[in-house]
Fold these 2 entries.
Entry 1:
Amino acid sequence: MSYKVGYFVGSLSSTSINRVLSKALISLAPDDLEFTEIPIGDLPLYSPDYDSDYPEVARKLKDTIAGSDAVLFVTPEYNRAIPGALKNAIDWASRPWGENSFDHMPTAVIGASIGVIGTAVAQQNLRSVMAFCNARQMTAPEAYIHFSPEVFREDGTITKPDTEEFLRTFMKEFHEHVQRVLTVLPRS
Ligand code: FNR
């Protein structure tokens, strides 16, 4: 069974290490996962004033999530939390009230950092946000990636077999998680 995965890169940096990680993950994922990026960089700051008339860019965000079977977050850690741009995108997607795009959505989170704890705190922060959004989160394996340019090439190829195998397993587990969730909670 093939699944459509919408993925967020939580960084707006033109040299984002998390974008590099996203390329690696896509290349290592099982063949029957099909990936579409959910862009966040052009969204205005969310306000409830928009609820009665969402701008085109925010409608597109919600449409892309609605067209996905699952969502993957690949995010940096900013000041021990998720970046504001990603939180803003989640706020847009979670509203208007009663139209939460993440309701029952299978999700997973992963992130890369130049620091040794590899986005662990940001990931806990994101898990708590997605719990409130009623997402069906993959709880294990966890993946806190300490980024090194010697291990990750810009095109997403990985030079260290252990790391490659770990990320391949992460994506295989994500595939199984999506399958399990959608067996019980098929998307309408
Ligand atoms: C950081 N960085 C960082 N790293 C970390 O491990 N924990 C943290 O709390 C922070 N905080 C933080 C705040 C801000 C505003 C910036 C710009 C950076 C460093 C971060 O890991 C590094 O910049 C990564 O390259 C960010 O990922 P992207 O944007 O390259 O994908």
Entry 2:
Amino acid sequence: MIEAASTRRPFVAEPMLTVALSKGRILTETLPLLAAAGIVPDEDPAVSRRLILGTSSPGVRLLIVGPTDVPAYVLHGGADVGVTGKDVLAEQEQAILYEPLDLGIGRCRLMLAGREGLEPSRAQPRVATKYVASTRAFFAARGQQVDVIKLYGSMELAPLVGLADWIVDLVDTGNTLRANGLAPLETVMEVSARLVVNPASWKTKHAAVRRLVADLAAAVERQGARA
Ligand code: AMP
């Protein structure tokens, strides 16, 4: 029987939420939080080569991207929501993304480090880092002039070959610094993974985004209570 138009339930499409996740270290800690919020990927992202994954929640799909690309995906509408480190967000020129939740995972420190027991050889020390904006802000706040050299990885090498006096890099256990004869000097920033939201999605998909933020906040709280 054909239903009369007036009795048909209006079709209200559940807005599809696209969540950009950072692959690598943060991913393994993000998945349990998502699972606690009722979102389980159809395939294991650690094994699958697919970069878009469906989930147990029909309104939610996941993108697997590099941590430094998460802000671009969320800012330009490729994803509504993203997860990435504070270290990455601090490098963005403008803080346009909403950052409603500290997920409390991927904890580490952005640190200034140098060769064990050695003072800088230059009057204006050279600092090698991937984190140029955070490094500049750190030294500007101290009123200290430095030359910042942008590197894309293996920063620990720079002081060993005289390329730089100091480095600014992420430190977790400190093993990488120690293995290269370097010592931590000062903390530039405490780092953890954050949930970021596209401002337009915050408005147009408000209910779905708010529900995700609330569910993840509850999962973070439960995890904190267990720790
Ligand atoms: P560790 O030896 O445990 O101090 O780790 C330091 C190395 O791991 C450095 O090469 C860092 O760039 C990298 N690292 C540490 N923590 C993180 C993190 N949360 N996210 C990405 N890379 C990290």
